[in-house]
Specification:
about 30% strand, about 180 residues, alpha+beta, OB fold (Dihydrolipoamide Acetyltransferase, E2P)
Length: about 180
């Protein structure tokens, strides 16, 4: 058998797999600086995920309706909801640019108002981070917005602070 007969189909198959792999992967321009992320987002805040509901497909992708208890915010000064905010994200399958939240975890979230749905949404392209990995970014946000935040986020998970947080949230909900 001729070497060309084997090599050419093998190269063609390899090229096909590469093109399919590139075409199906998430592709977005990752914003490098905190300032670029802040400018790009309509909403910038920290919060803890208190509930996740998986809803029907939107554009053939499963959606997460994530309820987030706001801890701190930088943009805008006030949120549409005082304590809990609903944020929408497609479930990340590796082929899209979705973002997978985990209930109970704290995040620094960059979000936008989806013009098609009118809902506050986010994706992996926005630059979201788990709060434990966002301390430098939070310092940068404080400097960029000339603030120390409305409620400085806490990454200390000790039991006393957790109980105090829950009690404060309960009181806030009671009187709102």
């Amino acid at each position: 058998m001729n070497k060309k007969t084997i090599i050419i189909p093998a190269l063609a198959a390899l090229m096909l797999f590469l093109v399919i792999g590139i075409a199906s992967a998430c592709s977005c321009i990752n914003l490098e600086s905190t300032e670029a992320k802040l400018d790009n987002a309509a909403y910038v805040f920290t919060g803890v995920v208190v509930n996740i509901q998986t809803s029907g497909a939107y554009a053939n992708q499963e959606m997460q309706e994530v309820t987030i208890r706001i801890m701190d915010n930088w943009k805008p000064n006030a949120f549409p909801e005082s304590v809990n905010l609903k944020v929408y994200a497609t479930i990340d399958t590796g082929a899209n640019c979705g973002y997978n939240f985990v209930e109970g975890k704290e995040y620094l979230i960059y979000a936008y108002l989806d013009s098609e749905t009118g809902k506050i949404s986010t994706s992996s392209c926005m630059g979201n981070l788990e709060l434990s990995k966002a301390q430098q970014e939070i310092k940068d946000l404080n400097e960029l917005t000339n603030s120390t935040g409305n409620n400085p986020p806490s990454t200390n998970q000790n039991e006393e602070e957790s109980i105090f947080s829950k009690f404060f949230s309960w009181l806030k909900n009671l009187f709102s």
